[in-house]
Design goal:
The structure is a single chain. A hairpin with a 5-residue loop joins strand 15 and strand 16. The two termini are about 45 Å apart. About 20% of the residues lie in helices and about 40% in strands. The protein is of the alpha+beta class. It is globular and about 65 Å long.
Length: about 250
C-alpha cells in the first residue's frame, strides 16, 4: 500500500497574527476562516480564498508547540506560487506600492506573473489560472429523488449518519456530505420535483462553452443552460437514458 498526500497548507510563524490577517484580507482579498485568540490578540489564524489556504501562528507560540525549532532562524528562502482568477485586478490595485516585489511580466514558459511582499517579507508569486473553458474538473453532486422527503432526510442523517451540507426545505432539497469529499448526495422532493430522477452532475469550467461543444458533437440536451444559485447548469441523457449534467461556478 502506497502513502498518498491529500492536502498541504502552510502554517507560517509570524510576529503579529492580527497584522498578517489584516494584510491578507484587506490587501490580497482573502477571508478569515478560523482564528484562535489569546487575550486581545490572535494566537493563530487561517485565511482562505477559493482553494487556497494559509495559516499563521504567533512565533513564540509556534516555538512552544515545536521546541526543537528554538534558536533556528524563523525566516528562510521560501516563496509561494499562487494561481488565481482575474489577476490583473489585484495587480492594478497594488501596482506602484511597496508591496510589489516584481512587476507584471511574461516568463520564459509563457505565463504572466507578478510578485508581492506580504507584511512579513514573504514573497508571493501571482499568476493567472488559465483554464480552457471546456475543461472537465470533477464530480459535482449526485441528485436522487425522494418519494417521502422527511423519511429520506431521517434515513440519510440518522441511519447512514451523514452530515447535512445544506438544506433548502421550502424548495424540497437537502444535501449530505460524504466524508471529506466536496461532491454531495442531494435529495430532491418528488412533490416539488415530480420529474426528478437520479442524475450525476459534473463540474466544468464553463457550462455554456461545454454545452456548445457537446451540442456540436450531437449530444441532445434536456434544456438550454439555466441559472442556479452557484452558477450555470445544463442536463442531458446518455445513449442508455441515464441523466447527467454539467455545472460551473461562474457568476456571469
Amino acid at each position: 500500500m502506497k502513502t498518498a498526500y491529500l492536502s498541504l497548507a502552510p502554517n507560517l510563524g509570524v510576529k503579529d497574527v492580527d497584522e498578517t490577517v489584516k494584510f491578507y484580507t484587506e490587501v490580497l482579498g482573502f477571508n478569515l476562516a478560523m482564528s484562535v485568540p489569546n487575550g486581545n490578540k490572535l494566537q493563530w489564524a487561517m485565511v482562505s480564498n477559493g482553494g487556497a489556504v494559509i495559516m499563521f501562528q504567533e512565533q513564540n507560540n509556534l516555538i512552544e508547540e515545536y521546541p526543537a525549532i528554538k534558536g533556528r532562524s524563523m525566516s528562510s528562502a521560501i516563496t509561494f506560487y499562487i494561481r488565481m482568477k482575474n489577476m490583473n485586478i489585484l495587480y492594478e490595485k497594488l501596482k506602484g506600492t511597496e508591496y510589489i516585489a516584481k512587476d507584471l511580466h511574461k516568463t520564459f514558459y509563457g505565463a504572466d506573473e507578478f510578485a508581492v511582499f506580504d507584511n512579513n517579507g514573504n514573497v508571493l508569486t501571482i499568476t493567472e489560472n488559465n483554464v480552457e473553458p471546456t475543461t472537465v474538473k470533477n464530480y459535482d453532486n449526485l441528485f436522487l429523488p425522494a418519494d417521502d422527503y422527511q423519511q429520506s432526510v431521517r434515513f440519510y442523517s440518522e441511519i447512514l449518519g451523514l452530515e447535512k451540507k445544506f438544506e433548502f426545505a421550502d424548495a424540497g432539497m437537502v444535501a449530505f456530505k460524504v466524508g471529506n469529499e466536496e461532491p454531495a448526495i442531494i435529495l430532491k422532493d418528488r412533490i416539488k420535483f415530480p420529474e426528478a430522477r437520479p442524475t450525476i452532475w459534473i463540474e466544468v469550467e464553463d457550462t455554456k462553452a461545454v454545452y456548445e461543444q457537446m451540442k456540436a458533437k450531437g449530444v441532445t440536451f434536456l434544456s438550454e443552460p439555466f441559472k442556479i444559485r452557484t452558477g450555470w447548469s445544463v442536463e442531458f441523457a446518455d445513449p442508455s437514458g441515464n441523466h447527467l449534467g454539467f455545472t460551473d461556478y461562474k457568476n456571469d
